[in-house]
Predict the 3D structure of the following.
Amino acid sequence: MQKLPLLFVGIVLVVCAALLQQRRSGVQSRVFRTRGTIIDKERIAMNDGTPADPAIMREGAAILTVRYTPGTGEPLTFQTRLKAELIQQYEIGSEVIVLYDAQNPSHAKLAPVVNQRTSTIATTICLLVGACFLLYGLLSLMNH
């Protein structure tokens, strides 16, 4: 019965990989990618209403305003809040990748740093390792 935990781990990994793939497929069918341009970079104000000092900015956050044009052809904007260590990467006028909802183009966000290839590789590894544990657990149970 020591092989039962391996069987359980295998089942959990296979189910998790399947759920991740299903979720990713559902989201990909609704989400489109386009290029956007950063049009404003605003430091978040301190509690008393005064703008944050550049030295404090390293510990705080800022808001980016991004303009993009979805498939409808009408330019839209959205704002996103970023931590200071990430905000340093973005400059006004620079181009970014925007993800927007095909059914509601005004719902948009910056594309995550993790790309689709990395996500696919992680899901595949999870599925393969889970299948190995599952098969090993099943074969061990059959031999007893």
